[in-house]
Amino acid sequence: MSRANPSPLPAPAVRLAPSILSADFARLGDEVRAIEAAGADFVHFDVMDNHYVPNLTIGPLVCEAIRPHVQIPIDVHLMVEPVDALIPLFAKAGANCITFHPEASRHVDRTLQLIRSHGCKAGLVFNPATPLAWMDHVMDKLDMVLLMSVNPGFGGQAFIPATLHKLREARHRIDAHIATGGQPIWLEVDGGVKLDNIGQIVQAGADICVAGSAVFGAPDAGGGYHGVMHAMRQAAAAADSTDFQPSSLTSRRTTPCH
Ligand code: DX5
Ligand code: ZN
User: Fold this and answer.
1) How much distance in Å is there from the Cα of 189 to the middle of ligand 1?
2) What's the CA-to-centroid distance between 192 and ligand 1, angstroms?
3) Ligand 1: which atom is nearest the Cα of residue 159?
4) Hey, which bits of the chain come out as E strands?
5) Cβ contact 100:84 at 8 Å
6) CB neighbours of 116 closer than 8 A, spacing ≥ 6?
7) Neighbours of 254 (CB within 10 A)
8) Where are the domains of the chain?
9) Model confidence over 195-211: pLDDT tens digits?
10) 204 closest CA partner among 156, 257, 147, 158
11) Sorting pLDDT into bands at 50, 70 and 90, what band is 1?
């Protein structure tokens, strides 16, 4: 993977991860190439099993099929239960990051280790009502933390405002971990991210924003995928430059992805 940021320039205010849940599945290769060309930082890949969540989507075969079409990392969000059996399959299929919901794994620490042992970034996903305490005893095994800002299962839902407070709390925990010598941990937000709220989301401490319907539903007249992602980056940068709280700057400046 080659998304290191060797440039001496400051890291961007936010990384964008379009969710292909809202893409045209009949043209998935074209769609992922188009978002990469338009500046996406990750492909967000939503896996739903009709058990952990009431919807059914895509699996390792589809991950393997899109892998040759893009260079950017594939960020696999597992909404499945149980979790572990799918990890080697997704790693083999070319996933770079694998996140899962801790309630869906019998042994959270073991699952995190399993993901890393397959060479992928590992992360926990927190539903709106899931407490952040799940991360307390596994901080050293986290490469990313994903806060759901909607209940998982469907694209196109409205952002839950209480996520902003939870984001600040997660940012604080991550910054405290780094301040005491811990490894960087990316903070990602997923659900209802739009042009009109991404500023607040980044200001609350997010490093990576998933956006499904906002990106894939972007009208051609507004510049399509490139137009909306460019506007989202500008809104994020404007909000970021007005935020001078040290706690929100620390880990956002870390280099994401190897
Ligand atoms: C929901 C998924 C999200 C979703 C985001 O369970 O995890 O990734 O596709 O879609 P939007 O941005 O439309 O809320
Ligand atoms: Zn997702």
Assistant:
1) 10
2) 7
3) 14
4) 15-18, 43-48, 74-79, 97-100, 121-126, 144-148, 186-190, 208-211
5) no
6) 122, 141, 143
7) 15
8) 15-253
9) 999 999 999 999 999 99
10) 147
11) very low
The structure tokens listed for 143 are 């490469």
Which pLDDT value is given to residue 257? Answer: 42
Band of pLDDT at residue 113, cut at 50, 70 and 90: very high
Structure tokens at 90: 């997704």
Domain 15-253 has CATH 3.40.50.12780: no
Q: Which residues are identified as catalytic?
A: 46, 190
Q: What is the rounded distance in angstroms from the CA atom of residue 83 to the CA atom of residue 102?
A: 9
DSSP string across 41-73? S-EEEEEEBSSSSS-B---HHHHHHHGGG-SSP
The span from the CA of 70 to the CA of 65, in Å, is 11
Picking from 13, 17, 77, the residue whose alpha carbon sits closest to that of residue 42 is 17
Which residue of 20, 35, 42, 46 sits with most ligand 1 atoms within 8 Å of its CB, as the best mutation to test the pocket? 46
pLDDT for res 11: 73
Whether the pTM exceeds 0.85: the reply is yes
The residues, ordered by sequence, that sit 6+ positions from 62 with a Cβ below 8 Å of its Cβ are: 28, 45
